[in-house]
């Protein structure tokens, strides 16, 4: 049986939503960490961008400062922080 340097075996891994092979334990920890984040961090910005995308009906890649999308997302993010 194949083991990693940290003594993990194939049953300790899964494929994430991006198609990468990750540790199940690390994945669960990251999901728990994201769930417990306050709205002034990445979780809040992600939610603000989702609202802005829904209102404007598009999601620019990358999000550039000064654009209409950025201004609307920033407005939503400030509302979430309060």
What this model shows, in words?
The protein is mainly α. It has 2 domains: 1-36, no CATH class; 42-81. The chain has 3 helices and 2 strands, in the order E-E-H-H-H. The protein has helices at residues 24-35, 42-56, 68-81; strands at residues 13-15, 21-23. It has a two-stranded antiparallel sheet with strand order 1-2. A hairpin with a 5-residue loop joins strand 1 (13-15) and strand 2 (21-23). Helix 2 (42-56) packs across helix 3 (68-81). The protein starts with 12 loop residues before the first strand and ends with a helix.
Number of strands: 2
Q: Strand-residue fraction?
A: 5-15%
Major sheet strand order: 1-2
- The class by helix and strand makeup works out as mainly alpha
> What is the 3D form?
elongated
Helix content: 40-55%
The tally of domains stands at 2
Instruction: Extract low-pLDDT stretches.
Output: none
**Overall residue-averaged pLDDT value:** 93
Radius of gyration: 18 Å
Q: SSE order, as H and E? A: EEHHH
First and last CA, distance: 52 Å
The largest pleated sheet is described as: 2 strands, antiparallel
Number of helices: 3
Secondary structure layout plus pairing:
Layout: E1 13-15, E2 21-23, H1 24-35, H2 42-56, H3 68-81
Antiparallel strand pairs: 1-2
């Amino acid at each position: 049986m194949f083991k990693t340097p940290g003594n993990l075996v194939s049953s300790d891994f899964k494929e994430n939503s991006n198609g990468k092979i990750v540790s199940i334990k690390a994945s669960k920890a990251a999901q728990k960490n994201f769930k417990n984040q306050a709205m002034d961090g990445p979780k809040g910005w992600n939610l603000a961008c989702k609202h802005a995308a829904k209102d404007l009906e598009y999601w620019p890649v990358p999000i550039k400062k000064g654009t209409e999308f950025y201004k609307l997302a920033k407005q939503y993010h400030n509302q979430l922080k309060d």
